[in-house]
Automatic annotation (TrEMBL):
InterPro entries: Peptidase_M15C, Zn_M74/Hedgehog-like. This is Peptidoglycan L-alanyl-D-glutamate endopeptidase CwlK. One of its GO terms (molecular function) is hydrolase activity. It is an enzyme of class 3 (hydrolase). It comes from the Bacteria. Its EC number is 3.4.-.-. Residues 118-153 form the Peptidase M15C domain. It comes from Hymenobacter artigasi. The keyword Isomerase does not apply. Residues 72-94 are annotated as: Disordered.
Length: 153
């Protein structure tokens, strides 16, 4: 997808979450520490209030709290298991591993039903997250390994 198509959304309807999906989103948001949850809610409201961004995709929390066991499984990816390296943290080392969690991961539901981790959309969402609360750090700003879906306080 070209960057222009990612933000234009011409001729498309905005992606809508089902009732079940909305409940899942609320449950994941409920796992976040209050300051991060508030920043996400504000950034989401700004995003959905922008007619261009709204058509580009619907922000979704893909993960907030992550058990240390699941963290260990993710750590194996790209090492003892196939796939790209997605984390440098072992179980218990990630900010995702405490509850409430000071970290959450974001993706976008596109109008065609696909889930996107577009760096362009994530950078736009990161701007809204940081504007909502200056304590929010975006993984895309990290030196070295960029974790663009990742936000933390
Ligand atoms: Zn993360």
């Amino acid at each position: 997808m070209s960057p222009n198509r990612a933000v234009s959304g011409v001729g498309r309807a905005a992606a809508q979450l089902s009732g079940v999906q909305l409940k899942v989103q609320a449950a994941r948001l409920g796992q976040a520490v209050p300051s991060l949850a508030a920043a996400y809610e504000q950034a989401l409201a700004r995003w959905l209030g922008d007619p261009v961004l709204r058509l580009a995709g619907r922000p979704i929390i893909t993960e907030c709290y992550r058990s240390p066991e699941r963290q260990d499984e993710l750590y194996k990816q790209g090492r003892s298991k196939p796939g790209p390296v997605v984390t440098y943290k072992r179980g218990g080392e990630s900010k995702h591993n405490t509850l409430p969690a000071p970290a959450l991961d974001v993706a976008f539901l596109l109008p065609d039903g696909e889930v996107s981790w577009s760096g362009l959309l994530l950078s736009k969402f990161a701007r809204l997250m940081k504007a909502a609360d200056a304590r929010v750090h975006w993984g895309g700003d990290w030196p070295g390994f960029k974790d663009r879906p990742h936000f933390e306080v």
